[in-house]
Amino acid sequence: VGVGDRCLSVMQLKIVRSKPHEEVGDRCYEEGMYEAAKLLYSNVSNFARLASTLVHLGEYQAAVDNSRKASSTRTWKEVCFACVDGQEFRFAQLCGLHIVIHADELEELMCYYQDRGYFEELISLLEVTLGLERAHMGMFTELAILYSKFKPQKMLEHLELFWSRVNIPKVLRAAEQAHLWAELVFLYDKYKEYDNAVLTMMSHPTEAWKEGQFKDIITKVANVELCYRALQFYLDYKPLLINDLLLVLSPRLDHTRTVSFFSKDAMQHAAESRDAELAQKLLQWFLEEGKRECFAACLFTCYDLLRPDMVLELAWRHNLVDLAMPYFIQVMREYLSKVDKLDALESLRKQEEHVTEPAPLMFDFDGHE
Q: Which domains does the chain have, with CATH numbers?
């Protein structure tokens, strides 16, 4: 008969009387005689030790039941981890429900799952716990971070439902590391970091820009310069919506600077188009609107597209000859430079024509030179 069998038989016959059952049970547990330990712990109703013993016997359901009777976080953890090691994730989840509600125990539980690569099972556990009465910020935060790494498609929905219950700075870092730009904008908005939200949308428009959200947030930025950057962004990315943006930004924009901003853009467009007629019409429009500085700037931006005689006529009619004088000085300098080059070429040509040709040798009829 084996040692374990002899020990069990003696206990059943109640021969062992010299030591308390619990102490004998501990000795059997340490020696790996789990059946004996199970009987002893059952007799003394030591549910915590009994639960530990049962997982060694593979009796996970009974281990969970006794953990519930023991009502000890330590026991729940021991049984939970044993279930994870045994890949009994349903029972591990039942135990985990009693662990994650303690904020100071959450990290150890998560590490145990993650170190063994059980990310899906950990996510499932945390998803189940969100409805618990004692659910705390750490649970919502850690689930958001797990989503950012392993199920990014679920993160935005999670944030929309529970953004007020997550640690936003911590989740912000996770979203940025995962390049989840739409989620990052959402969190910046909720955290009232409007400048960063706008910058993120302009830097990653394909993933992060939404018209209504952008117009709502841009009105709240602290740095007014972002309003002007937003104008340029719309001109480049959504030019047909620029009027809608101007409507919401008009209370914060300096109108003179805004007009200059668009005038500069119009001049640049005309210059790049290489369309002389367009450049001339733009110059005339500046005069009709009384924009003298824009008129002067356009002379140089569209310099090679404008006819000097037309510019002179417009400047004379609007009493802007003095303002246009730098332009005419430049035109005159170029003309004189061209004339000087032509004169130099002409002089060279004449010099070549007057080069003395060698006289031919003459001979008389007697054959003498």
A: 21-135 (1.25.40.10), 192-253 (no CATH), 262-341 (no CATH)
